[in-house]
Design a protein that fits this description.
The complex is a heterodimer of chains A (538) and B (373). Chain A is built from 21 helices and 22 strands. Chain A is α/β, with parallel strands linked by helices and 538 residues long. In chain A, helix 18 runs parallel beside helix 19. The longest helix of chain A has 16 residues. Chain A is globular, with a radius of gyration of 24 Å. The chains are: A alpha/beta (538), B mainly alpha (373). The interface between A and B is medium-sized, with 41 and 29 residues.
Chain lengths: 538, 373
């Protein structure tokens, strides 16, 4: 746990040679070779499903490659468990928070420590070192639940570096961060590489890859399709680098698009603009009304206080905010999964406060949850059943309590075709599908017959760019058809592209409402976020 | 298409292997244990087979199988919902004592068949009602049902002994027992066999439960509830209702097991008698992957093993508790097989890295020396 151990020698390299990993029906990594040098930020670009996550889980010891070798400074190594990865100095900052909310920062950091006794003094000393290194002030005794998002991420990085890391892997670190927090992250990374640490930055946003990366590798369909070395990156200007990366990311598909700008837009290379058409607020009827709704849940994410809002027919209302500030509570109270402790919820003027999930489902209130894998679907049940999950027991799919498999399959096949869900068959277990296809299953289920108001919670998190585009189109079409959408998102770009108005949620309350009508929307939303939440950006 | 069928066949074969391997390994290791204490395992297993299957002995196995299968079904239902009703002994005994205690008296007043039906229903109700407190505590406060059902089980067993001694005591005998049914008062046999019709009830119950689980909306809701409570909430399944329903069905089936066993096999009950059927079937319920029909072969295997094993262990001078050793071995090997199977499914390596490192090191050294030369 000393400094000599944790500061790696310059010039060291972790070499992945022809890594191949296949899953049933898909080759996630096909002879991928990479060289990860110390003191460099190596950007790994690619759509979701390109094989980035698999490659990372192999490096992190979560999965074994089918073939190929990994060597550290020339010595072949075998990474069969996360513990081994840790011993080699490979630390991963996962996309999702791995902090235990009930424990303090220090306790979270010390979780993986070997030995019997808690050596707190040493730990505090180490945390101070890391804080300096990261350029962030991290208070050791703060409960993890009270950290702002930017701080949380700093702690995650500190945790990954805790046991002396030579290679730090950041999996999509920027999607939830505000612009200023992204800048802070960039500064931290510069400081780390200056100390000789290697960094792998995984992202699907081109402009960040260019800004932060020393070199860029692009994966597509499990293959390593392009590599811009440090030397080439230095000689290229931003435009030519961008064009080359885009060509690598989309390949032949680029020909199908109108011009480069469409590819740029969906790959996050440019700044987002509003893309929904105007609606007439005076004539559109109010679909959903929340009047001072309060819930009594214990966790901060699940409880809301005194929220009042109205969504009109055809409107997409965005909810911006730092993750974990009551978004789940708001979604659940509308969907009926949580009771309103106080307040009234109305649909088309009728009180639905007392209706449960199934009652609201029947009335036309639908909910596309953000927890696609554990809440929205049952992984070990087939696609067909998952599409019917909210219509269990209803005719014509169930007759006299008995399932009519033919009817279920027919309806499933119709939805699979309509939403272009890629699945071998309706009988395939939903857990084997890709994230994008699982999301399509949810959308097909929730936006179907009789849907009037749909709550979508982080609808595009972790999806590949084409699916993101498809989800956006589906939501826009739904609104254009007179439906109302409550769009909860932590992606600022998405909110600006889709929403008519954006409300900012903080600590379970709506702290501001911004009409999405000009180029300064992002800044105005950001101002409410910073004002409302205690220094989330660190 | 053909490929998918082949892979499905492969998956099924894999499941069978994963279920049968622990039993085979347990029998092998038990054989080694027998060798170390100077017994002949081949002779023992042959003896088990002779006394459990041959010469009409399979019929005795079928009689034993009746309560075992019904208890197993009762466990399948709750286990599928990820609820752990371990209070099967108390539920069984309490239901049984009312059957044994009331039947002899009632049969002097009412037709025998009416008493069979009436008391069977009563047994189902008692078995079910003994789960209500754990179910309520679980639904209302999230109290761990393993603890509450175990506590309720102890209370139930104690209550059973009190009932035998103070309420249902047969005045004509000195030992604390209930009255005894005559052969004519007990369940009739399937014609041409020595197996009482309770066996048919058990098989029918398995078929019905299989249908409910695989074909009805309730079965689907149950599976969703068991897979993920979050998904269940999302879909609008009322967890309180579900918990009560599962516990009541479970306790009811265990009560039914008690009624069939008392009416079919024993005809009376005495204090300090506890067949502890549930303890025997738990591993097999898991080996059957919580499938009602899948339980049938496993429970049949155990019934044969138990029927033949008791005689075989007497013949060879082993304690009859040796059967429990084999059940325990099955549990151990099941855990290991599951561990390896899960690792395999996840595509992870079976051995810890440290061990592999140690094993690799000498080869690495040889390789690097070779390279230097």
């Amino acid at each position: 746990m000393t400094n000599t151990e944790s500061s790696p020698a310059n010039g060291g390299v972790i070499r992945l040679h022809e890594i191949t990993k296949a899953f049933p029906g898909v080759i996630a990594n096909n002879k991928v070779s990479l060289e990860l040098h110390n003191a460099q930020v190596h950007c790994l670009l690619g759509e979701n499903g390109a094989g980035k996550s698999t490659l990372i889980s192999i490096l992190a010891g979560l999965q074994l490659p089918d073939s190929g070798t990994i060597s550290v400074d020339g010595t072949p190594v075998f990474i069969g468990s996360p513990r081994m990865a840790k011993r080699l100095g490979i630390g991963v900052v996962h996309q999702h928070s791995t902090l235990v909310p009930g424990l303090t920062v220090l306790e979270n950091l010390m979780l993986g420590e070997p030995g019997f006794r808690k050596r707190e003094k040493l730990a505090i000393q180490r945390l101070e070192e890391l804080s300096d290194l990261l350029g962030a002030r991290i208070l050791p005794k703060t409960p993890a639940a009270e950290l702002g998002l930017g701080q949380q991420q700093q702690v995650e990085i500190a945790k990954a570096m805790w046991t002396g890391t030579r290679l730090l892997i950041l999996d999509e670190p920027t999607s939830m961060l505000t612009p200023s927090a992204i800048d802070a992250l960039g500064e931290s990374l510069t400081r780390l590489t200056a100390r000789g640490l290697g960094v792998v930055l995984i992202t699907h946003k081109l402009r960040e890859a260019y800004k932060m990366g020393d070199c860029v590798t692009v994966l597509r369909g499990g293959r390593n399709v392009a590599h811009l070395s440090v030397e080439r990156m230095a000689t290229m200007d931003e435009d030519s680098a961008r064009a080359e990366i885009l060509r690598a990311m989309f390949g032949d598909e680029l020909a199908d698009m109108d011009d480069l700008s469409e590819a740029e837009e969906i790959s996050g290379a440019t700044v987002a603009r509003r893309e929904v058409s105007r609606i007439d607020f005076s004539s559109a009827p109010v679909k959903l009304r929340l009047d001072s709704v309060t819930t009594g849940a214990r966790s901060m994410d699940a409880s809301i206080t005194d929220i009042s809002l109205e969504i009109r027919a055809g409107e997409i209302l965005g909810i911006a905010g730092i993750d974990g500030h009551g978004q789940t509570g708001l979604a659940e109270v509308v969907a009926g999964q949580q009771n309103a402790f106080r307040g009234v919820i109305e649909l088309n003027g009728a009180d639905i406060t007392r209706l449960g999930v199934r009652g609201r489902q029947a009335a036309g209130v639908r909910y596309v949850t953000d927890d696609r894998l554990h809440e929205g679907t049952v992984a070990n049940l087939p696609v067909s059943i998952n599409l019917m999950l909210k219509r269990i027991g209803e005719a014509p799919f169930w007759r006299a309590g008995q399932i009519d498999k033919k009817a279920v399959n027919k309806e499933a096949e119709r939805l699979i075709e309509e939403y272009t869900i890629r699945t071998p068959s309706p009988a395939t277990r939903v857990g084997t599908l890709s994230g994008g296809n699982i999301q399509k299953v949810l959308l097909a289920r929730e936006l179907g017959e009789g849907s009037q108001v749909v709550v979508v919670n982080k609808p595009t998190a972790g999806l590949d760019l084409k699916t993101v585009r498809m989800v956006h189109d589906v939501l826009r079409d739904f609104a254009a058809g007179g439906g109302s959408v409550l769009l909860i998102s932590t992606e600022m770009d998405e909110l600006i592209q889709l929403s008519h108005r954006i409300a900012v949620i903080s600590r379970g309350s709506i702290v501001g409402m911004v009409p999405n009508d000009g180029p300064d929307t992002a800044e105005r939303v950001g101002a409410f976020m910073i004002g409302g939440a205690e220094d989330g950006a660190a | 298409m053909a490929q998918r069928e082949r892979s499905r066949g492969k998956a099924a074969l894999y499941l069978v292997i994963r279920s049968v391997v622990p039993i085979v390994l347990a029998l092998v290791v038990a054989g080694i244990l027998m060798l170390t204490i100077g017994k002949n395992p081949i002779a023992f297993y042959t003896d088990v087979f002779n006394n459990g299957v041959l010469g009409g002995n399979w019929q005795a196995s079928a009689v034993l199988m009746t309560p075992l299968l019904l208890v197993a079904l009762g466990l399948v239902v709750v286990f599928r919902g990820q609820l752990w009703n371990l209070g099967y002994d108390g539920q069984f005994m309490l239901a049984g004592v009312f059957v044994a205690g009331l039947a002899p008296q009632m049969m002097t007043h009412y037709p025998v068949w009416a008493v069979w039906i009436g008391l069977t229903i009563l047994a189902v109700i008692i078995g079910a009602s003994w789960t209500l407190i754990p179910a309520w505590l679980k639904a209302r406060y999230g109290t761990n049902e393993i603890i509450t059902t175990l506590v309720m089980s102890s209370i139930g067993i104690g209550l059973t002994n009190i009932l035998v001694q103070y309420f249902f005591q047969d005045p004509t005998v000195a030992e604390p027992t209930t009255g005894t049914m005559t052969t004519a008062q007990m369940l009739p046999n399937i014609p041409g066999t020595r197996i009482h019709i309770g066996f048919i009830v058990a098989i029918v119950a398995a078929v019905v439960l299989q249908f409910v689980i695989s074909r009805t909306s309730f079965g689907l809701r149950l599976d969703i509830f068991g897979s993920s409570t979050k998904a269940a909430r999302h879909v609008g399944i009322n967890s309180t209702k579900m918990i009560f329903a599962l516990f009541i069905i479970s306790g009811g089936l265990i009560g039914l097991a008690a009624a069939m066993d008392i009416f079919g096999q024993w005809g009376y009950m005495r204090t300090n008698w506890n067949p502890a059927y549930g303890d025997m079937v738990v591993p097999f319920v898991f080996l059957a992957r919580l499938s009602p029909l899948g339980c049938i072969p496993f429970i049949a295997f155990y019934s044969i093993f138990s029927t033949g094993g008791i005689i075989a262990s007497q013949d060879s001078g082993l304690s009859s508790k040796f059967l429990l050793v084999i059940v325990a071995l099955i549990l151990i090997f099941m855990s290991i097989t599951e561990y390896i199977g899960t690792k395999r499914d996840l595509g992870q390596s079976y051995l810890p890295d440290e061990l592999k490192e140690v094993l690799r090191r000498p080869f690495d050294r040889i390789a690097s020396q070779g390279a230097r030369r």
